[in-house]
Amino acid sequence: PVKVTKICCIGAGYVGGPTCAVIALKCPHIQVTIVDLNKARVDAWNSPDFKLPIYEPGLVEVVREARGRNLFFSTDVDKGIEEANLIFVSVNTPTKKSGVGAGFAADLNYVEAATRRIANVATSSKIVVEKSTVPCRTAESMRTILEANSKPGCRFDILSNPEFLAEGTAISDLFKPDRVLIGSLQTPGGRDACQSLAAVYANWVPKEQILTVGLWSSELSKLAANAMLAQRISSINALSAICEATGANIDEVANAIGYDSRIGPKFLKASVGFGGSCFQKDILNLVYLSESLHLPEVAAYWRQVVEMNEHQKRRFAKRVVDTMFSTITGKRIAVLGFAFKADTGDTRESAAITLIRDFQSEKAYVNVYDPQVEDEQIWQDLQEASPLVPLDQIKKQVTICPSAMEACMNAEAVVIATEWKEFLDIDWEQVYKRMNKPAFVFDGRLLIDAERLRKIGFQVTTIGRPN
Ligand code: NAD
Ligand code: UDX
User: Fold this and answer.
1) Which one of the ligands is nearest to 95 CA?
2) Are 110 and 92 in contact (CB under 8 A)?
3) How far is the CA of 386 from the centre of ligand 1 (A)?
4) Does the C-beta of 161 come closer than 6 Å to ligand 1?
5) Which of 9, 102, 145, 225 is most buried, with most CB under 10 Å away?
6) Ligand 1 neighbourhood includes 226 CB (under 6 angstroms)
7) Atom 3 of ligand 2, residue of closest alpha carbon
């Protein structure tokens, strides 16, 4: 097997950035260059005061140690490709917005562009690693493109190495992954390439946690893992609706079923709905794959996981309106949290976006606060959610606040949309004094101590518990 000495990662996003920064940290003998076409993003990765383009606990420390030593960020994609003997393709694969499979299929345009670039530029043999999440058998298309465009004497081996990190815990997930999965063709060349990549991870990951499988299994395992994880959340959220209607308590139910060692306690937290760039996109991708394989029942099964999530978001917004005497017109609602989960500034598919859009259409005023999300991002997301409403109209209805306390000022209701720890330390007595009465709190994250707030005087509504 080839010894990996220089790595290039195409795509300096939420996955490429942290993943390859950690590889550089753990493998000082390997030169790692992360390239991207987005100059602003690359500049941010290179910023002298470490104002990185993404917020992730522990990331700054990693970049501080490795950057300039054996970790480099650049817009020179061609040079990065040329120099490396192993290339990660870590570009975005969003859901297609138009054309065949619109709304379901993955848009493979960026993967193909990166692959063609590799084929055009490379003058020596490369191991090309699919890091992006892609439909099953994408590696086959990549191989065809590479082989059809390669220069004489250039050999390309394709591997699949999906990423399982979760945002907010990316660095600890990368330091101690549950497993690293590498898929390759079961040919001598494929197995050798697989060994080369495995040797990189073996610098810090125990060998028994590096799983090597066939290419198609590897690609499908990524979609399957996300579908199963999201399915657990939709299952617990479906049960939360039954709890609210019957008097059962979703925390008690989750705890009771989680004690079954076959089910396990993790990922059973009822919520206002899952968000993030992966779950919905990857399930829809799986739905599309199932449909293209003429498996409509399989497609319908997975599609329901996403539909349940949509239902949960709508149900929560409706419960807010119902509880506030069936109208929130002209009322001020404080939405705490805008990111799709705590410890990230990422807002992709965040439930907060849907909630605020629903409150806007009920003609409420919204105060929003998030400790990490940039104002520009909030405006962009709200504009995309209501494309027919002009931005200055949105800005008349929505105010971005610099703190949770200011967001709650003179509000009629507080809605917790993201489980930021700092919301536990809010001075709720002060908040109560400054709100209109009755003062409502809606906890979409099972975060706060409802009994304590009720003692202060709040009317508290919690997911998965009756009012
Ligand atoms: P992202 O949008 O944050 O980053 C992708 C980057 O690729 C962008 O900066 C873009 O400018 C760059 N890019 C696109 N085409 C390019 C090209 N031809 N040449 C150079 N750069 C190019 O996306 P992400 O969240 O990092 O996700 C990347 C992939 O990883 C996706 O397939 C996603 O499904 C998968 N994934 C994401 C997560 C996650 O938590 N975000 C976790 C596991 C897997
Ligand atoms: C997910 C997968 O966990 C990760 O393995 C994959 O690589 C990328 O997709 P991510 O989307 O970053 O990671 O975060 P995750 O922690 O999975 O949370 C996704 C959403 O589900 C968030 O909105 C979160 O708040 C929600 N969630 C999670 C729940 O509502 N309840 C839970 O019990 C867990």
Assistant:
1) 1
2) yes
3) 25
4) no
5) 9
6) no
7) 166
**Residue that has been written with the tokens 């990662």 in this structure:** 9
- Phi/psi for 338 (5° steps) reads -130, -20
Spatial neighbors of 296 by CB under 8 A, at least 6 apart, are: 290
Q: What is the pLDDT of residues 160-208, one digit of tens each?
A: 999 999 999 999 999 999 999 999 999 999 999 999 999 999 999 999 9
Superfamily classification of domain 223-467: NAD(P)-binding Rossmann-like Domain (3.40.50.720)
Reported as a single tens digit per residue, the pLDDT across 198-245 is: 999 999 999 999 999 999 999 999 999 999 999 999 999 999 999 999
Tell me whether residue 162 is annotated as binding: no
Residue 139: CA count within 13 A, CB half-sphere:
27
